[in-house]
What we know:
By secondary structure, the protein is of the alpha+beta class. The chain has helices spanning 3-14, 61-77; strands spanning 18-19, 25-33, 37-44, 49-56, 85-91, 100-105. The protein has one domain (3-105): Phosphorylase Kinase, domain 1. A 6-stranded mixed β-sheet has the order 1-5-6-4-3-2, with helices on one face. The radius of gyration is 13 Å and the shape is globular. The model has no long low-confidence stretch (mean pLDDT 76).
Amino acid sequence: MNSSEELIQKCxxxxxxxxxxxxxxxxxxxxxxxxxxxxxxxxxxxxxxxVALKLFKKKNIVTIKEVINELKLHRKVNVHSNIIRLLGxxxxxxxxxxxxxxxxxx
Length: 106
């Protein structure tokens, strides 16, 4: 495990963020792009929820730290009705340069 993977794993453990297998998503469709990456709409599991998957293009230590900070902030405000809910994270192994994905719903 490299240092960025260790940082992410530490965050997931400390913040009790759930991990979802990427293979559990279907009907994945690109809905937007930005400086940090792409956003996709997908269906989780057997249609339980429609979610947004945010795929980060860059995988360097600065991006990893920014992602971790964003995950922590989402956990702190995850109970507010006006905030998009963080369900957890997933990982797409097929894209080594863009393997960090996190997902949101509602």
